[in-house]
Amino acid sequence: MSVNTEAAGHPRHAASPPPLDPGQLRKQARQARRGRLDMKASPYLYVAPFFVLFLVFGFFPLLYTGWVSMRDWGLIKGDQGFVGLENYQEVLTDANFWNAMYNTAGIFVVSTVPQLLLALMLANWLNRKLRFRTALRMGILLPNITSVAAVGIVFGFIFADRYGLANWILQSLSLDPISWRGSRWASWTAISFMVDWRWTGYNALIYLAAMQAIPRDLYESASLDGASPTRQFWQITVPLIQPTILFTVIISTIGGMQLFTEPLMFNYGAAGSGSGLEGFQTIAMYIYSTTFEGNFKYGVGSAMSWLLFMLIMLFALINFLMVRRSLKGSVQ
Fold first, then answer.
1. Beta strand residue intervals within the chain, DSSP E
2. CB 162 within 8 A of CB 182
3. Percent of the chain with pLDDT over 70
4. Are 152 and 262 within 8 A, CB to CB?
5. Is pLDDT at 206 greater than 90 in this prediction?
6. Rounded distance, CA 221 to CA 229, Å?
7. Entry pTM
8. Rounded distance, CA 124 to CA 199, Å?
9. Considering only CA atoms, which of 193, 184, 121 is closest in space to residue 159?
10. Banded pLDDT at 21 (limits 50, 70, 90)
11. Contact (CB, 8 A) for 166 and 158
């Protein structure tokens, strides 16, 4: 009588799989290598478009401008050869260049400081429970998507010396009208209104996004300890969004030092009411005027651009250090 080994608890050994042929082994090895290569190379391929665009439209123009800045190059006469640092010497001894730098720094301070403070207060207000909160958050961004040329033209007429809305309001209050383009401080103030109207809402939304990432438990604990909303804002909100504040300061510095369209349209916004560009010509406007108007000094304009680039880096670093120190002091 035959004995069933499986029934007796002794399972029959399964047959071993047949060995793979060399072709299949090579195919599996290639698949494994492709998998490892995909894991290592995919992140670099995803970010490659940014770096390609930056090299083409950012890094190469920067190097090319530096090369042109050391040559006697005019848009009409062409390249006249290497001149070394003579273009930089001409720029640094140009009184109009320093006047434009003074105007640029002045407009930057007058516009950026109240802009960021107002954006911070506006973001704190929008961070509360409000009716139509989403509509309000969308509404404050509308000035940023408006055409900057249209904004410049409208504000140019608002601050026109004749028949301007601003002077009409001043006269209605029994105050003397202001020559907005005839006074340095008046023109700085008018241009600052244009810049702040356009960018305050944008910075406020950046601050709002940072504020919403703060845990609500911190505010509840502070309320139980008797801290007022104002103290909570300065002792909790501001220190915790310090990186965001540093970001907006640096971005505002870069944008403020490159200010061009607003003062340009402010000058053309009301024909016959200006008195020249000396009071509000920015460095970007002077670079454009030097390069594409007058003598078409391409090399000199490139030298100004490189000096502006270095000044922007310097001012951004100074702002970073000053804001970080002040915020650390507020935390302590």
1. 71-74, 78-82
2. no
3. 84
4. yes
5. yes
6. 12
7. 0.76
8. 17
9. 193
10. low
11. yes
Amino acid at 261: T
Radius of gyration of the chain (CA): 31
Angle at which helices 261-268 and 148-158 cross, to 10°: 40
How do residues 52-77 score in pLDDT, each as one tens digit?
888 888 888 888 988 988 988 877 77
Largest CA distance in the chain: 127
> Can you tell me the distance from the alpha carbon of 271 to that of 261, in angstroms, rounded to the nearest whole number?
17
CA distance 260 to 267: 11
Structure tokens at 95: 């009184």
Instruction: Note the pLDDT of residue 272.
Output: 37
- Angle CA 156–158–160, to nearest 5: 65
Strands 78-82 and 71-74: antiparallel
Burial bucket for residue 303 (CB in 10 Å: 0-12, 13-18, 19+)? buried
Secondary element (H or E) of residue 128: none
Q: Tokens at residue 311, please?
A: 């000044």
Q: Which residue has the tokens 């008046």?
A: 186
Find out whether 100 and 276 touch, Cβ atoms under 8 Å: no
pLDDT at 116 over 60: yes
For residue 111, the surrounding DSSP H or E stretch is helix 95-126
196: phi then psi, degrees, rounded to nearest 5: -65, -40
What is the C-alpha to C-alpha distance for residues 254 and 28, in angstroms, rounded to an integer? 53
Q: What pLDDT was estimated at residue 13?
A: 52
- Of 52-56, 111-115, 135-139, 158-162, the one with minimum mean pLDDT is 135-139
Structure tokens at 76: 């009409």
Structure tokens at 298: 């391409």
The helix/strand/coil state of 147 is: coil
Nearest to 30 by CA among 42, 22, 40: 22
Structure tokens at 195: 């810049």
